[in-house]
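To assess whether ligand presence alters the predicted conformation, the chain was also submitted together with zinc ion. Input:
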Amino acid sequence: MEMIKIFDTTLRDGEQSPGASMNTEEKVKLALQLERLGVDIMEAGFAAASPGDFEAISRIAEVVQNSTICSLARAIPNDIERAAKALDGAKQKRIHTFIATSPIHMEFKLKMQPNEVLKRAVEAVKLARSLCEDVEFSCEDACRSDIGFLKEVALAVIEAGAKTLNLPDTVGYRLPQELGYIIKELKSCVGDLAILSVHCHNDLGLAVANSLAGIQNGARQLECTINGLGERAGNTALEEVVMILKTRKDIFGDLETRINTKEIYAASKLVADITGICPQPNKAIVGKNAFAHESGIHQDGMLKHRETYEIMSASDIGIPQDKGLVLGKHSGRAAFKDKLTSLGFNDLTKEALDNAFEKFKVLCDKKKEVYDEDIRALLTEEATKIPQVFELLAMQISSDSNGVPYAAISILKDGISRIDAAIGNGSVDAILKTIDRISGYNGILKDYKVEAVSEGKDALAKVVVKAEFEPNKPAFIGHGLHLDTLQATAKAYLGALNSYLSMRSLIAK
Ligand code: KIV
Ligand code: ZN
């Protein structure tokens, strides 16, 4: 058996996905889920990029025990020193430093000669090694670099102390045969002196295929993200490569990962919840329809023998097998806690558990049937809660087909309730305008999504709002969960505002 290391970069490359920024609490929550999933290494951020990244890496380094925590750093001393500092509390840590090696990047972006790039790479790795035992070096845009130069850089950085050499297809340009050839060449050059790693982008839809070609030619580390999130068209989807290795043992033989595939679904849901970016319904492995059989012929075949139409089972990925009709209003705290454990929420503080139980009871009073998905949504809301600078107290909406919609809202801030009202061109507009009047912030709405958490007319509504509160600064995401969609809207918008306020001092200048 030979192990493939899974290097998850959802918190770094994934977060570079347009609109996917996360607050610190959300990052910590996701890091704990990645640990349960069993990733070998998680790239928790880019410490020098912003105080927010630095703080998130430090917090993650303190709480995660079983995965190596990594920070990205450009090949410059300040970045490497910041990375080392952020990783200080980690049980196992790695610095990942990089510089571009392709002619186009060296000439136009870096404005450096190849010999200068080589020198900088070696110096960066030496400095990183003086601060951390485990150092990874990436040749950015490796797959458009001259292969002779790549080999020269590879041998030099390994000599300087790099233990992993990553060869990214930064712009997602290569075809599988081409990527396989690059890895084969590098493998023949470095042998067992370092672990070769692939990091593929999905611009031509080939990230997963290219990663597999890398593995077949000697790479033993795979860089990937949950749901394939990432810069532009994204990165290699973790769930896809892992399930391919597991399902096609006839091709991949003894290659194994440490991933607990039963945690894939929970990880995918969490990333979608936090970022507001949901995989398309027909997305392999984690899409809503990935295990749905619509045609009668298929259903008939499935009933006779599941493997007629299914190559994997939904339970292998941790997809709940039924709607999980749960406890009702008479259920006690112990049964509720049991349910949470079965859903994977086993690291809750007493306060979080109490709050969730209270919300569950309120929900049971209002909703006939409470499903696992409802509980999961309540808990995710609870677990990623940040300081509530503004809190919704009450809301009244008026909307009729001939009149002007208006909202009257009362919000708690610093223990004082503030009330105001505004009209809008619809109820949502009126709500957001009223909140702006009360808070004094003028948010720009970038995205608004509403979905039912489970089924039925009385389903909980989940609203995801993306809003910008400062020009040219990242938009923040807020979630609102309520039986009433408009109440959920107000909660989501306030959530985005609170998230912005909690991160304001940590955003890059
Ligand atoms: O795509 C890329 O080249 C990267 C590197 C920084 C590893 O993300
Ligand atoms: Zn990348």
